[in-house]
Amino acid sequence: METYLKIENVSKQYGQFTALKDISLDIHKGEFICFLGPSGCGKTTLLRAIAGLDLASSGKITQNGIDTTFLAPEKRDFGIVFQSYALFPNLTVAENISLGLRNQGKSLKEVDDIVIKWLDIIGLPDSGIKYPNQLSGGQQQRIALARALSLSPGLLLLDEPLSALDAKVRSHLRDEIRRLQRTLGITTIMVTHDQDEALAMADRIVVMNHGCIEQVGTPQEIYQRPASRFVADFVGNMNFIPASVVSDSHIRIGETLLPKPDKALLRGDYFELGLRPEDLHFSETAQPNNSSFPVQIEALEFQGTFVRAECRLQGEHKADTIKVDVPIRELRRLALERGHFHHVNIAKQHTHIFQAEH
Ligand SMILES: Nc1ncnc2c1ncn2[C@@H]1O[C@H](COP(=O)(O)OP(=O)(O)OP(=O)(O)O)[C@@H](O)[C@H]1O
Ligand SMILES: [Mg+2]
Fold first, then answer.
1. What is the rounded distance in angstroms from the CA atom of residue 99 to the CA atom of residue 321?
2. Backbone angles phi, psi at 138, to 5 degrees
3. How far is CA 121 from CA 103, 112, 162, 281, in A?
4. Are the C-beta atoms of 76 and 51 separated by less than 8 Å?
5. Ligand 2 ion: residues within 5 Å (CB)
6. Rounded Cα distance, 311 and 342, in Å
7. Cβ atoms < 10 Å from Cβ of 223
8. Which residues line ligand 1 (CB under 6 A)?
9. How far apart are CA 60 and CA 108, in angstroms?
10. Is 3-234 a CATH 3.40.50.300 domain?
11. From first to last of its 358 residues, what are the pLDDT tens digits of the chain?
12. What's the rounded Cα separation, in Å, for the pair 260 and 244?
């Protein structure tokens, strides 16, 4: 695959504070990339370095074969949409979109045609004469998107463009952005701290934490094979169960011995077993191959399509409760009740192991 944007060893200092530490990343042409991570992890800083709005302190950024590291933003080839709509309130929608096109030296007729085309594409054909405050948040964000895309940039940068919108509008616009991006084939980077958004939209997700990249991968890779405890915790739900290796063949969690899930674990190791709530299943009795442990149900929480059972591991009173998600259609068969004891089955292929860093 052709690399469109290459980020090499980029760091960013704000005085003593390091906002980005040695970031390297290749983004392919036409890819939809999400920068995902908690507040303050450096997502916006990296996006602004790519746009030239804040220059990197060191490292190199190459876009479409051109070294852009220290290029002024107006000399770069990108369109950007921010969380707040950032439309000029005193200009009509059509004027907002026209501005950049006029600066590109296009004729009035050309500009008008492009504006009409884009208002049509985003489904707001009659709003050209309106002012931003006459539009809803979702509509303003569509205008901002049209404004960015009407300039036919090589790269689309989106900084939490959906986070100010309510859930319904957000999921609608999510689909629309993705459809548009695919049709145009435009290389896109979207910053978000919403894991669902990243999982649903991205070709690849870049998970960030404390100015570093923790993992880069497809949504499935990130979800199914989290590279670190941080990623496992941040993306999706994960139970972390304290465990120790008691022999060459067995580990102990709570008061239960289980077969050792990974050869690399050594006798005497302490680690955490990571298990996603949807990968756990209840049974009435212990499994013959010992891949189950007993728990007591403390609470049942209705979640719509499933019930989340909060369970207490026996003999382990300090640990957090363990969450088990039970699909509604399975619930009838199980007759779960608060206070009851059940066995939780674990499947080896769904087991994650997180060893304390030495
Ligand atoms: N101009 C600045 N001067 C000093 N520190 C800054 C500046 N801009 C950002 N920072 C710091 O750099 C870190 C990363 O900020 P950044 O805005 O990139 O985070 P973010 O991942 O986008 O977070 P959020 O999800 O809250 O938008 C933060 O700790 C922030 O306080
Ligand atoms: Mg940010």
1. 56
2. -65, -40
3. 22, 14, 18, 47
4. yes
5. 44
6. 9
7. 17
8. 14, 17, 19, 37, 39-45, 193
9. 38
10. yes
11. 899 999 999 999 999 999 999 999 999 999 999 999 999 999 999 999 999 999 999 999 999 999 999 999 999 999 999 888 689 999 999 999 999 899 888 899 999 999 999 999 988 999 999 999 999 888 999 999 999 999 999 999 999 998 888 888 888 889 999 999 999 999 999 999 999 999 999 999 999 999 999 999 999 999 999 999 999 999 999 999 999 999 999 999 888 888 888 888 899 899 999 999 999 998 877 766 668 888 999 999 999 899 999 999 877 656 678 999 999 888 888 888 899 988 999 888 889 999 876 5
12. 10
Give the position of tokens 């007729």.
Answer: 109
Q: Whose CA is nearest to atom 9 of ligand 1?
A: 45
Residues 6+ apart with CB under 8 A from 22: 9, 10, 11, 59, 212
How far apart are the C-alpha atoms of 1 and 23, rounded to whole Å? 21
Considering the segment(s) 239-348 as one domain, its CATH architecture is Beta Barrel (2.40)
- Cα distance between residue 281 and residue 26, in whole Å: 40
Closest Cα to atom 12, ligand 1: which residue? 19
Domain with CATH 3.40.50.300 in the chain: 3-234
Domain with CATH 2.40.50.100 in the chain: 239-348
**Measured distance CA(254)–CA(242) in Å, rounded:** 8
